[in-house]
Amino acid sequence: MNNRVSFSLLYTFFHCQLWMYGGLDSNVFLQYLAWVTYPVVLITFSAGFTQILAPQAVGSGIPEMKTILRGVVLKEYLTFKTFVAKVIGLTCALGSGMPLGKEGPFVHIASLCAALLSKFMSLFGGIYENESRNIEMLAAACAVGVGCCFAAPIGGVLFSIEVTSTFFAVRNYWRGFFAATFSAFIFRVLAVWNRDEETITALFKTRFRLDFPFDLQELPAFAVIGIASGFGGALFVYLNRLIVQFIRKQKAINRFLMKKRLLYPALVTLLVSTLTFPPGFGQFMAGKLTQKESLVTLLDNRTWAKQGIAEEFDYIGQSQAWKHPQVNVFVTLVLFIVMKFWMSALATTIPVPCGAFMPVFVIGAAFGRLVGESMAAWFPDGIHTDGTIYPIVPGGYAVVGAAALSGAVTHTVSTAVIVFELTGQISHILPVMIAVILANAVAQSLQPSLYDSIIRIKKLPYLPELGWGHHEYYNIRVEDIMVRDVRYITLNCTYRDLHNVLLTGHLKTLALVESAESMILLGSIERAQLQSLLSLQLGRPRRLEYIKERATAEKKRLSVVSNPSSDDGSHRASQEVRFQVRGHCRSRIDRMESHPFHLCLMGCNLRKIAPQTTERIAEWEEMQLDEQVNFNNCKIDPAPFQLVERTSLHKTHTIFSLLGLDHAYVTSIGRLIGVVSLKELRKAIEGSVTVKGVKVRPPLASFRDSGTSSSENEATELHKLWDRHKSMSLPREHTPSESDEKSQ
Amino acid sequence: MNNRVSFSLLYTFFHCQLWMYGGLDSNVFLQYLAWVTYPVVLITFSAGFTQILAPQAVGSGIPEMKTILRGVVLKEYLTFKTFVAKVIGLTCALGSGMPLGKEGPFVHIASLCAALLSKFMSLFGGIYENESRNIEMLAAACAVGVGCCFAAPIGGVLFSIEVTSTFFAVRNYWRGFFAATFSAFIFRVLAVWNRDEETITALFKTRFRLDFPFDLQELPAFAVIGIASGFGGALFVYLNRLIVQFIRKQKAINRFLMKKRLLYPALVTLLVSTLTFPPGFGQFMAGKLTQKESLVTLLDNRTWAKQGIAEEFDYIGQSQAWKHPQVNVFVTLVLFIVMKFWMSALATTIPVPCGAFMPVFVIGAAFGRLVGESMAAWFPDGIHTDGTIYPIVPGGYAVVGAAALSGAVTHTVSTAVIVFELTGQISHILPVMIAVILANAVAQSLQPSLYDSIIRIKKLPYLPELGWGHHEYYNIRVEDIMVRDVRYITLNCTYRDLHNVLLTGHLKTLALVESAESMILLGSIERAQLQSLLSLQLGRPRRLEYIKERATAEKKRLSVVSNPSSDDGSHRASQEVRFQVRGHCRSRIDRMESHPFHLCLMGCNLRKIAPQTTERIAEWEEMQLDEQVNFNNCKIDPAPFQLVERTSLHKTHTIFSLLGLDHAYVTSIGRLIGVVSLKELRKAIEGSVTVKGVKVRPPLASFRDSGTSSSENEATELHKLWDRHKSMSLPREHTPSESDEKSQ
């Protein structure tokens, strides 16, 4: 319901701006001031508010949701603060009239609602405490976000699946439909209650003729729209990334902008709104129209131009904005497309809650309209040859273009469904489908989707998709990409080993093997668990205990050896030592807690302490470190995911995506021989994707026969390993050198 | 393209029947004969042809595809023979005019095409040899099947996902769209080329008014259609299963039908076509119309009845069939619904290639029409209150009813999309969505889907879905359902152990553990691999070698001991022995091959052989059996899937579905403690699903705290196990009794 409120607030803003602008028609300068000030203030407020309250609310939110649904915990993105910042920031940003979208933020807002609802419900216990249930809630929420944004329940569900999931559980499908249908229903019922509509209809209802929507011979034109949109979509993603990277790289600019965080949004807004100022350049690109109005006029079912000349067509209402006394409709359309293109790419880099779907959708519609108008001008009586004249419907082209360009930017095909639901007409289904598929084919082979691009820019922990047509994924094996130098701990290791392992590695979990010789994988232990084990062994309570013991012993010794007068002195000395040691301990423990990976064990701050005591503490530490680790109170994951050397990259990727893994151990008949984490997988996939044309074969791949694998191959025949295993079979401890060599 | 051919053949059949029927209008009896003979002959031929060529072609094919996409290999369902049988059988079955559908068989046919294409392409090597690629091909093929059946690419993709997948890889999504769009395009382009249509339009194009498709106050009526359809759908599935089970259980009927396999189809066809005979009872239920014609008339945008009386509405063409001089349109509709309902449920049990979607769709449309006509009769001037009169559109109700009933029977929501694509109008999106969701909610809580019902009837190896709202899935753990008595082999086992294990168990794969004491899981070996190991050890070559050796030794002994004259005799005897033994060996090996689990080792057919030789062979066998197994040439899967005791049933189900597992081992810190196969999982799920209201808690569940699990809990704290493990840590062999106890 919050979405609804923000929605109506938004319209209030729009009307305000137009009213301000309209009321000042005597003076162009005042008009300009009113036209420009309004968006600048709103965007600056939005940026500032978001920055202060919750910087996580910036941007679309779909990349983050994709990462969260992938299984990565990004808790700060689902807090109440973020919710408030997103709703208010989005309302202001949309109210500014900048070319910004709302479908990404709506997805995020719906997910925030779901997360907060889950958190609230979990107070009552029961099913809501379950983590996988929360993921289901979030998936349904994503569908709601898109669904109520466009009043497109089906398209919403499909779009949200495409942009957020890698593998989708069909059992969650109806949940999404249920939620999205109700959200769309409420959204449209509000319009009826507000007396805007008589009954529930589509958001951007079109009125194309039903009996003959398009001719078969028009299909090539639709295909052209699809292919061009594919290139356009890839260009948009590229441009968007370029702008972000340019601003980040230019250190001078960056330093300046960092200081004045609100300057960048204000400048961009100023530039964009100056260019769209209706009496100025805006007159050549229908600058007066809001996004919604542009879309309504672009989807109009009448032809604007015939025979290349802008005729006096029956302009009603908003459509007049496209008409300019001096220039052609085609020029207006081209200018609109070009200007909006870079404006949208630029505007979506502003740090406010905003999406890019709607601007891209409008640009696509304009491009489709341009092609449609050209076709109408070229074939004034339509293409159909059999008697009846069916004129070309440029609005249909606009629908196709909108679906194709937005599909290309987001790498989805469900935009086709969204346009049907948005326009309330499905007559152009085949042209739309063909254009969307072609646009996707082109765009996917050139650039990642906008959301994946943002994921890369933001460096979110996400696994890239396998591109299609890259057959080498079936030929690359885990053994080519795995890290052979696995950090492990053994069942009978000492605390010193533990300490060394913790100092060197960076993985979140460590493998537990039976012994360094057998290397049989028993499970994995989280780093934090090991750290607590270690700090338990060397921590303050133990240390104090030891020092107390030492002090007592010292006291005894002194009391035996020295005279009564020195007794008091020795007591003082002992106390001093204790104090110093305690201070030393504390600083050390503090350091341990703040830098838990780095335990500086050998004296650095020991200068103040008497050399004897220091030595003793060091001695004690050494003793403690040489003890065998007691794993009793340690949580062990007894079945970490295991792969085999010959598992293909394709299969590995599938398993990682399916199960949301972070890493997997590579074993060979129970023996740990390597580890693969998301990092290696990402490197392997990107390594072979980014280098175009050249197959980057991993170094070991060439030693293998190049025939593709059947799944049977993956049940490895490990003669050699097996032989070794057999030879040392039960008393395996005898051949350490050989095993050590292997484990490296 | 084969689908196309069958399609046009089908129409030829229809026209034949109508022509025969029309040409004989002088004599009712001859008319009846013509009306009845035609379907009976076609159905009987179809049943016979399918039975002889490939009985796998019988039925829908969707349940089988669901099972195959789940990862189970059902090779016989994807052969060329099945393809031929399905295409020809389906053509005849549809041509008969019985209430049979084609969408299931189309899915199967498209999958057959894909499978055969893959097989053909794999001749050229490369990517097509890969198994997972084949699954992707099949998934796309399923989309094509539905897509070209209804010219509904989007609905086709979604429907096929819903009915065949549990987890869907989004990266396969565009493949489905691509394939389905082209199939739908070709399908509709053929209609244009045949001059049936001027351009590409929807298959059952409707012409409802766009400006005011329905009033908000009509929504309750749509909801009623949804709920009633839910009950109706569940009843249909139940009725269908009841008929199958009744015929199977009645032994007398069954024996009779088994003898005369073609009698059942013929009888059912006779019954159905007698009842639809237009001059007979058929006149009261529009028996003259084919399914397609019924649907076209039901989706008509004009009102048939007003104020409860069948007026002289403008009957054009086929719609006249619904008009009867004596009875009301309502009576005709009710009779149509009731009769078609049981007829369809009965007809789909005939052993011919056929689906149930289309008949159900038509019944749903008729039910919707009935409600719509009633509404139109009740509110002759529409419901809208504000001035303008918008009469009720009963055709819209028919669309809603069709989507709702077919959605209820198949447990899908994508039927909503299919109806939009089928009718070319999306104006009724909200009523359709609401009705479909309600119908699904009702049907899913009462009965499995039609396809799941068939899976159960056919006992296909499929994992049932987790019903929704069953929270106990999160509380049941693997330890409650796993089989603790795991069949395993050890690394140092003898052939005798191998033999014993093979004799007792039935699982396809066996666990390989380090030793019976340590129970550390090293991998799994397929049963077939072990059998070949065993037969290698005891097989004919070895045996012959041994006998040859024996014979040589015997000969030597004889030649030394006895006189020269007996030399020849001994040679003969030796040869005889060799022959006999060879015969004996062969029979034994044959038996081994046919009953590989049962090696009768001790003499049974040994009577003919000299007792001495028999003894020696037995002795040799004993010796061979006592040797240690050499696993060198054995394919070992070094990383079988492992679960942990505390993994929840919900998670286990998810993992099994995601990875298409058949079984998984349960380990505790590397030690094998149990195994879970599909069987146990199915039992656990069905056990708690079928018993309504009563939570069937597994026996061990009550010992556990009832709080729901967080995923952290699943990283088990196994203090006790761990202690034991530690105590026996490296020289583990010392405590066999304790371990044995645990491993049981």
TrEMBL record, chains A, B:
GO terms for cellular component: chloride channel complex; plasma membrane. SUPFAM superfamilies: CBS-domain pair, Clc chloride channel. Keywords: CBS domain, Chloride, Chloride channel, Ion channel, Ion transport, Membrane, Repeat, Transmembrane, Transmembrane helix, Transport. Residues 716-744 have a biased composition (Basic and acidic residues). Residues 700-744 are annotated as: Disordered. The chain crosses the membrane at residues 6-24, 36-57, 106-125, 137-161, 173-193, 219-241, 262-281, 329-350, 357-379. Gene3D superfamilies: CBS-domain, Clc chloride channel. Its main location: membrane. InterPro entries: CBS_dom_sf, Cl-channel_core, Cl_channel_volt-gated, ClC. One of its GO terms (molecular function) is voltage-gated chloride channel activity. It is a multi-pass membrane protein. Pfam families: Voltage_CLC (PF00654). The lineage of its organism: Eukaryota, Metazoa, Chordata, Craniata, Vertebrata. It is found in: Membrane. This is Chloride channel 2c. It comes from the Eukaryota.
